[in-house]
Amino acid sequence: MKKIKLTEPSDKPSEKTTVGASQQLNALLAPQSWLLHSALFLAILHAVFFVLQCYLLAKVFSQWLTASFRQQTLDTNALLAILPLLLLCLLARPLLQFCREQLSLIASQRCRAALRSQLLNTIASSGSAKNQYAADGSLASQVLEHVDALDGFISRYYVQRYLVLISPILLFFAILYYSKLAAVLLLVTAPLVPIFMVLLGNAATSASQQQLQVLSRMSSRFLDLMRGMATIQHLQATTRATNSVASAAERYRSSSMKVLRLAFLSTAVLEFFASLAIALLAVYLGLGLLGILPWAKGEIPVPYQGALFILLLAPEFYAPLRQLGTDYHAKAQALAAVAELQPLLQRKVWEHTGKQLLQFNSAPTITISNLRVLGEHNRPRLDLAHLSLAAGQRIVIQGASGCGKSTLLETLLGFTQYQGEVSINQQNLSQLCRTHWQQQLGYLAQTSAIMAGSIADNLRLANAQASDQQLIAVLQQVELWPLIQQLPLQLATPLGERGLGLSGGQLQRLAISQLLLRNANLWLLDEPSAHLDPDTALRIHQLLGKLSQGKTVILVSHHSAGLDWADSIIQLPQLASSSAQSLSQQVPDGAI
């Protein structure tokens, strides 16, 4: 028998992934480029004022030293001429630095807000297909932590990566005016800093991506455990779940320490080489002032004013490089975050091109002709030649898994791009405003969309203006009010995550109450009894039949028990490469 070795996928980002993430990151920053370029301009002005400040300080101290050495009185007129410029530099530099930081911060806030909005729009536009990207906990982590991971790159690193070239060049020419050897010495030692920065930065990029992956998995696992806490307690598996969370937290701690270790190591290396170069420069200038240089004994190659000017500039020559090295982990973290967000960012969200508003006050008619929906790699998801629903007609869609039942509902909800024609009251669905169209629908999924909160809060998600009497009325319609009435807090009774506190059948009744509060004339029901026992499913089906009278209803279900109220059943055939078949099959009353 042939053995197949299974290997785990590598967490290390590939070169293609890194390049794609970098391009995506630049695209995200494009709308805020004017803010970032303005911040860069202020940073360059800051460097110019720093050069001027160092020149003025060197001149003042040179004049003072010369006068003291010659035992002369200091020229106060020359000093008073310098002081206003020196005061201007001392005031302008902090102001320019503050404005630069504010512009970068605003750009970061706007960019992250736009990205978060894009991600939320993609998730919302995906409908039930959002689960193909990640679990809810992982998606929440991506929208929150992953987006915030871009802050350091935008607010600090983006401007610094340009300033690291401009500022040293500016200082190089200023130093070159006084000493060619000193300028060459700085120029030769400067490349050592970015070389080690790149070597350590590549390792930091890999470590940052692994850290974000661990965080995403831990968030998803923790949310799943919280949602299933009742089952865990029932199975007496609390200790095992606790150990699982502790193990995940330990892996996240280990990955976080790895990132910090690399960040501190890169900072230490950069500081070492910068300090070594400055010390070498100081030795050269000091020996030159003493006139004991081996190749220029008895000579002073750089006078005191020039030597002081160079020594004042030298730390700033390496400062942008050191700062870039400190912030380089911000770039690594941003690239890792964008790489993790690629599936959501690269998804092309389909939007209706039309802007028509369709308002119907009674059950609508639906006509479908030559409907075809394709998935990835042009794989057919649904082929439907013809389907017609009269106003108030209620049908059941059945068929094997993968034949396109849920895809049909996603198409009618406006989440899926399609070929063919879908008409609502003789108006093309693709020409309707999707948001307004969705407000006319009542949708019930397999799992009730119940959130942590009170019963009243969950009901008011469907109708925020509903009064307590309206809530009680719909609860009576779904035969849930007698149970809630016996609870101490009644409508204010809190529910846990996913409706913890109510049974599956009770949660579906609560979800049906939300449908009634929407007062929609078109109901799309996606296997509302999928996770219920047969007796509860039968009662839910019968309840839906009683409450949906006078509405146009499309119900997807694998079971027929309790659906004798339906006007017709449509069997979707298994998808094949052949052309679509007509799927409209009328069933006489009572035949189910």
UniProtKB/TrEMBL annotation:
It is found in: Cell membrane. It is a multi-pass membrane protein. Residues 366-592 form the ABC transporter domain. Residues 39-333 form the ABC transmembrane type-1 domain. GO terms for cellular component: plasma membrane. GO terms for molecular function: ABC-type transporter activity; ATP binding; ATP hydrolysis activity; ATPase-coupled lipid transmembrane transporter activity. Keywords: ATP-binding, Membrane, Nucleotide-binding, Transmembrane, Transmembrane helix. The keyword Membrane applies. One of its GO terms (biological process) is cysteine transport. The chain crosses the membrane at residues 34-58, 78-96, 162-178, 184-204, 263-296. This is Thiol reductant ABC exporter subunit CydD. It comes from Rheinheimera salexigens. The lineage of its organism: Bacteria, Pseudomonadati, Pseudomonadota, Gammaproteobacteria, Chromatiales.
